[in-house]
């Protein structure tokens, strides 16, 4: 009786309903995950700074350390300073100032010290020992580059901050360098040649309202339940209709036919 539910037409319907229900469940989980990711990243940025060496070593992925506040001590490698053009601060186009810092244990940390409106104002930092705090951010990708197509960069410029680009520009071996960069928050002694950058402006986190995401996630799961109910109802209605037709056919066969009245 139910074999017809395995016909090609019904199999296609089953697959469509299963995919729809799976998509709704996934979308609901994604909404909850979006909130958890946003909340977790904000919480990481608000933690007290720890030594960068406690979170990440040279040439290691920084996934677990991303967004964390860190501190480091060492000396800037002023001769390897580079500028990253096409970066906006408060609606004004300028340059990021990237200077590697060799920490006390020998690890090299690319540090975005700040922003300048004109490249000539970015001075080389003194070779004195400094103590810095900042946030660890992941390497940039080509999509972060804001230079024009075909634009020729100056020898002291980088299109975007990535391990391969930093290594090529500075000559630093990858085995000594952190595979991301540190966005400077404060420095002792302070440097006055650059303007500070806010981590939430450089790498913004989408603010997510937990109740909004909860409602969206619940809605997707309601859609999944509705699709399941509709699927079951469609099969039930089809079975009832088929049984009714079969019963009517059996009844017409079992009853004797009435004689026809000639006209």
Automatic annotation (TrEMBL):
Record-annotated membrane-spanning stretches: 12-32, 214-234
InterPro entries named in the record: Surf1/Shy1 (IPR002994), Surf1/Surf4 (IPR045214)
Cell compartment(s), UniProt: Cell membrane; Membrane
Primary location class: membrane
Keywords tagged on the record: Cell membrane, Membrane, Transmembrane, Transmembrane helix
UniProt region (Disordered), positions on chain: 243-263
Superkingdom classification of source: Bacteria
Keyword Membrane: yes
PROSITE patterns xrefs: SURF1
Membrane topology reported for the UniProt record: Multi-pass membrane protein
GO-annotated cellular components: plasma membrane
CDD domains, A to Z: SURF1
Pfam name, any one: SURF1
Family: Belongs to the SURF1 family.
Cited PANTHER family: SURFEIT LOCUS PROTEIN (PTHR23427), SURFEIT LOCUS PROTEIN 1 (PTHR23427:SF2)
Protein name per UniProt: SURF1-like protein
Species the sequence originates in: Phytoactinopolyspora alkaliphila
Phylogenetic lineage: Bacteria, Bacillati, Actinomycetota, Actinomycetes, Jiangellales
